[in-house]
Amino acid sequence: MTKDLYKDGKIMIVDDERTNVLIAERYLHLQGFENTLSTTDPSQALEMLRTDLPDVLLLDIMMPEISGLDILRWIRNESKRTQVIVLTASMESDTQREALALGAADYRYKPVDFTELLLRVRHSLMVSCYLRRLAQQVEADAGPAVAVPLTTSEIILRLSQSAEFLDGNAGGHVRRVGRYARLTGEQFGWDAAELELLEQAVQLHDIGKIGISDSILLKPGRVLGEEFSMIRAHGGFGNQTLGRLPETESQVVRNHTRLGEKLLSQSETPLFQTARQIALTHHERWDGGGYPQGLAGAQIPLAGRIAAVADGFDMLRSEGPGKSPCSLDRCRDILDRERGQQFDPQCVDAFFDCWDDVLSDET
Asked: Where in the numbering of this chain does the Response regulatory domain appear (predicted)?
């Protein structure tokens, strides 16, 4: 992401405490973010939003008459591109859950750590600016065809690699998962155009992680409850120390599926319809115990079921913060045992049918 792209991004600050607004504006300006606007009046904030939507909104929650949650509800209905970072003194978990459910990209407690806030603003501007360019490019060039212009493919790859980098995984995870999904799709008899679309769409499966704090994504040994259960049940990572994320942080991580769906809803082309579907459903489980919707069996789109197996395998095989890769034998054993539980049995069987090709492409 270049400095010019940052300068194109507009940041809006809404807080009923003028001191908070002035401090935030001053810090952003010192860091080179000049395109800012602000207000201490939530009613005026809505009027400003109706006139000109920002790329990033820094939003207080506890305000008189119109709360930050009210503004979030409005934003959810009006703008799929604006990234909302909540800044609040409220420690109520219900408020945090509601804000995240309403589509907030992040939730920061006051007093704000401005060094960390700067990272979140940069990430959010990157998402918003790329999505704006991507939507313009797709509408101009892609049309109804499945094939995607090279320029659009490059933007897709940069977006997916950004999410991958933030997750502490710079080893080609998105490319591998896309390739594994394509190989699996071949076993279902999909044609070349469908396979190309699947491979590109799957690479955006974790794009919603751009909206998650680095302090959570890069926490050594961090594992969601459902991942913890699977790995512990099968001895997935040997003797190393693993731990569940606290529930509030787990909720933030799980929210990346809905955020990913939101980020990808910029176009109705086949590519983005498929990518949006995969982003939302690749953490659903065949037995109904997944997230975010608790779908089960064939309720989960086939592309999401294929992505789940491909992503699960590469997660087990990859290094990460505080974890080392599983052996191939252990990976195969885990996939086989989770057949019919976490994963669609047919998708696991199809993955095993192309096992030799998977291994040849693993690097």
From this structure: 10-125
